Amino acid sequence: MTGLLHTPLRLGPLTLRNRVVFTAHLTGYAIDGLPTAQHAAYYAARAAGGAGLVITEEHSVHPHDRPYEKVIRGHDRAVLPGYRAITGAVHAHGVPVLAQLNHNGGQACGMYSREPVPAPSALPDPMFREVAQAMTVAAIDEVVAAYARTAGHCVEGGFDGVELQCSHASLLRMFLSPATNRRTDGYGGSLANRARIVLDVVAAVRAVLGPERVLGVRIGAQERIEGGIGLDEGVALARLLEATGAVDHVNTSIGVATASLYLIEASMHTPAGYASFIPSAIRRAVSLPVIGVGRFTEPAQAEATLVAGECDLVGVARGQIADPEFAAKAADGHPVRTCVGCNQECVGRVGLNRWLGCVVNPRAGHEAVPLPDPIRRGLVVVVVGGGPAGLSAAAAAARRGQRVTLLERAPQTGGQVALAATAPGRAELGHVVRDLLEECRRSGGDGRGGVAADAGRLRGFGADAVVLATGSAPEPPPWTVPGVVSAHDVLSGVADPSGRVLVVDETGFHQGTSVAELLAARGATVEIVTPAMVVGQDLGLTLDRENFRRRAHAAGIVAGTDRVVTGVTGAGVAGATGEPGALDVALLHHPTGVTEHRQVEAVVTALSTAPCDHLWTTARDLPLYRIGDCLAPRRIDAAVREGERVAVEIDARAGRVGTCSSAT
Questions:
Q1: 208-219, pLDDT tens digit by residue?
Q2: Are the C-beta atoms of 483 and 574 separated by less than 8 Å?
């Protein structure tokens, strides 16, 4: 792709080779507060993949600021070897790298520091619910000095500059926002006063950096909270920053991490460029280069926002997590492996204090451990099942030079992921299937749809390895009667319940909530119940819960928690052509022990599934491998990851013993 995306841009003292920025985001890769080889390899992979600029995750500037276990302690000189490893690895590919500096202030807790958290005013944070200690002027001066000291460490460590976070999770943002700054001294009241600490930090850091390094500022110009920063003040702040003459770029953000995080790391329900109005407004007001962000998962989206004049540079974080070669492939016109905005392995894992990973890119976070080269090529590999696990295995094995045949019983590949993609707002899941299938074909794999595999057919291939990726299937609950159907049956069109429908959510994820939205959109009166404390409770990990609740409210979906189905009597709608009937559903409200009853036309179940592993027991004489749901029903990340892993395992086993043998 040619165009603005791949034109150079001057950024202070630097000339960037293109407009693609790998923006700051948490990784969870730090150990004891120090950068690691994992960081260096992770950032270097995106530099090698064509990014024009890399900005690392935040580095804490003060010892008292430890908002989470794996924050990088930029204030400690012990970070310098790690800094030099990161900058050397990125510079080896001719790409500049900035460090983002931050103090989380009151958007944290004292769990790790064992100290009060500082803030402009003594207010509780909505997430951590810890009342902050209002900072004295001396404490403010100490923080300003801490930013300068940490910037000095970045200079020693070889960074090309720094970016100050004044956006979604920052003490500086808390000073800027009227919602969190209630001060009446020279640091509160007017925007000029609230911005005083930011301008002091800018001056102090610029003095350390000198003119030969970049100083950028990331601002939250639309907080979307009561009394928070609005776009007009965000634009005014950008003007103040430009007037200092010390700032080289303005980066942008939307939302606040502890109140509206779902806006910052938006899921697939949110369109690309949803936040572009922010950099667009700022760009009209200042002459500094402006970075725009907003879930750009495909190069064409990034190009379009540049062509529209909405920004000068495009921040692509998750898109480059999914495909480190995002920028290079865009330049060459090659398709990228597309981020689907599921947030399961990136946002979700970091939120659980784990390494950042990626559903569609199992190598994310593992770049420091190279895959072994193929030992033997030309092995005959048969993959049974064309869902994400089978497609991943077929693509990976074909890339390693094996002769791959994929057999799928259905006419089309995709399995349950393709089915899930038919639900409202979930269409982007289809990219997983499309991208893996295309990778398999480009590498020479042979995909055959509409072929049911049995032990006899498999023996006829004379395969060196047979990978079973036959997935899983819903099992009817013990209280099944006519009119009780699975979410799988609804999405596939086998069942089309109408009227009053009760959805039973026992997975806590998208299965129940998606089918509830689908049926409500078709005109059904929907109630969704769960034994858990929250309907779709795991949606919180992927930042989908808030928007689901809003959509459910608008659609009239009623949610009930702490309720277990103990029995169903009657006969409801059995299928698309069934006659309506009446079901009586007994629900135990387990906190009180009271049994409630619902009269509905249909019950839709979103329950756990069972492995489809018949071939595992009937074809044991073959060199079998099981992956994905066929091994144990889990989520898409396990399927894709195990597909990649089994391709390496097949090759390694063949190299060790000269042939493949059975494996689990």
A1: 999 999 999 999
A2: yes
